[in-house]
Amino acid sequence: MIGTSRLRSPLAFSETLFEQMSPLNAAIKKMALYEFHYALENLYPDSGWDSVELDSEEEIERMISQRDFYEAIQTKPRLKDRIVLDESIARLTRMLFVGLVRGEYSQGWINKLFYFDVRGFYFLPRTVYFTETALAHFGGKPFRCFEPRQKRFENIQDIGYLDFQEANLEIDRALIESIQKLIQVRGTPILITLAGPTAAGKTEIVERLLDTFEKMGKKTTTIEMDNFLLDRDFRDNKPMGKETTHFELFKQCLLEILNGKRITIPRYDSLSASSSHDLEGNLRPGCLPLEIEPADIIFLEGNFPFQMEEIAGLIGLKIVYLTDDPVRLKRKWKRDIDYRKNYDPAHFRNRFFKTQFQRAEDVYRPQIEKCDLVVDTTAATLWATSEITDILGSD
Question: Is the pLDDT of residue 262 over 80?
């Protein structure tokens, strides 16, 4: 443990913390000490680092495992005229900093439970996606393993798509080849759902799959589940499901397109947060629906379809495309802040911290426990159920 005088000196604290943090995030090693000091100033407590009171490791573990902790986080708290980091997030990061410097939290314990994002300059809890139920669902081990090339991202602060695509080359090729073989065996038309967290690379891999199938002479189309949403006023913060969608129309449309028929579906306007159809599923005056032609391969876009029992049975292939949170966050910095400029940076940090636990608990863990294939691009592993592996074989 270090002396109180070192805690009272911002520069001395920064120097010690810099040494302690470097093993936790390789990207920190590329920072100069004065750059680290600049970033740390944003979290400097009003009464100094020696004023930070530490929770026990058990208390912290209990806190980050409870949903209430995440639900209480504000995404747009303000200090005067600007959005700032939520105080609960700031307090957690300050505790981990001080605990490291004092020697009360070990690097191993912190690294097991948290990852540090350099651009956000804060700690986030690690999300566990593979539950015991999920592991049992896939027979306890992955179907195929490849070199985990995303490790090269550990010493950089953000990730562009071309580098991301190159790192995923082998695992993506294995997925595409597996889907091709499954379709040859199961036949068409087939409905495919590819779900996964934001910035995992879903949009890009679906585009490559569409291109692959078209080169094979297969007719493809996509159905966006968001188009079946009710008006935002009618959803009233309810979870995605029957009560928030034109569910009967959704089910009917899927049945018809799988029977080779052209379908007419609602059109959802994200700007006005309203549907082209009323609550009874009738087209509103002056609105235009969407027409979708039948196809051999139909991609159903959206994270919720195969959590609905009546819909899951219609889906011929259920896939979760997964990338670990630290990598996705680096991708989102590049995509959503640098390029799209979608968010205020503090809002972005708060929102990502708040939602990962909630989405994993509500969406992704349940999906992984029920799907046919999981592509874990970070670990470079392909997981498949026994039914799928029987078709694909061991090669």
Answer: yes
Residue labelled with tokens 């799959």: 209
For the chain, where are the alpha helices, taking DSSP H only?
Answer: 4-8, 10-21, 33-41, 57-64, 67-71, 87-102, 107-113, 132-137, 161-167, 169-186, 202-215, 232-235, 247-258, 309-312, 325-332, 345-359, 365-368, 386-392
Residues present in the chain in total: 395
CA distances 255 to 187, 278, 298, 314, 341, Å, are 16, 21, 12, 8, 40
At 394, is the pLDDT very low, low, confident or very high (cuts 50, 70, 90)? low
Instruction: Quote the DSSP letter at residue 222.
Output: E
Residue in the structure block whose two tokens are 């065996």: 185
Can you name the residues that pair with 78 across neighbouring β-strands?
83
Task: Say what the pTM is.
Answer: 0.91
Q: How high is the pLDDT of residue 235?
A: 85
Whose tokens are 């970033």? That residue is 39
Helix, strand, or coil (residue 319): strand
Residue 209 token pair? 């799959």
Distances in Å between the alpha carbon of 35 and those of 17, 121, 124, 323, 337?
13, 12, 21, 29, 20
